[in-house]
């Protein structure tokens, strides 16, 4: 069971982090896009963002489930795991804030503040690397 959860967890990690990096790259390329293809970047970025958010949700589910299976509950979990959880909570908050900003922009019909999107994206990318580092240190 643990190995199956770990496989799903890694797939979700690829969705979440890969989606975030893909959107950073897409956002950098959008100004260079042909006016005909420019709208396609936004549509693709929205789809990739939804995939990344779904990946984060799956990471929460599989991560808590694996911790419960591996440690037999939540009382014997190492301190580094709690540091990882703190980073995951921070990443989840940044992701939620980014999603709210995008939803508000869609409702108003105006693009979200580009500088704020960048700050969120880079924060998520950095937190993702910290989370991976803490996971490796915790479980290795």
Description:
The structure is a single chain. Helices cover 84% and strands 0% of the residues. The mean pLDDT is 89. The chain has 140 residues and is mainly alpha-helical. It has helices at residues 2-29, 38-71, 79-108, 114-139. The protein has four helices and no strands. The chain has one domain.
Compose a concise summary of this entry.
This protein is mostly helical and 140 residues long. It is 84% helix and 0% strand.
Instruction: Say how many strands there are.
Output: 0
Round the Cα radius of gyration to an integer and report it. 17 Å
Order of helices and strands: HHHH
Cα(first) to Cα(last) distance is 19 Å
The poorly predicted ranges are none
List the total number of helices: 4
CA-based shape: elongated
Itemize the secondary structure elements and their pairings.
Layout: H1 2-29, H2 38-71, H3 79-108, H4 114-139
Helix pairs in contact: 1-2, 1-4, 3-4
Short descriptors:
mainly alpha, 140 residues, elongated, single chain
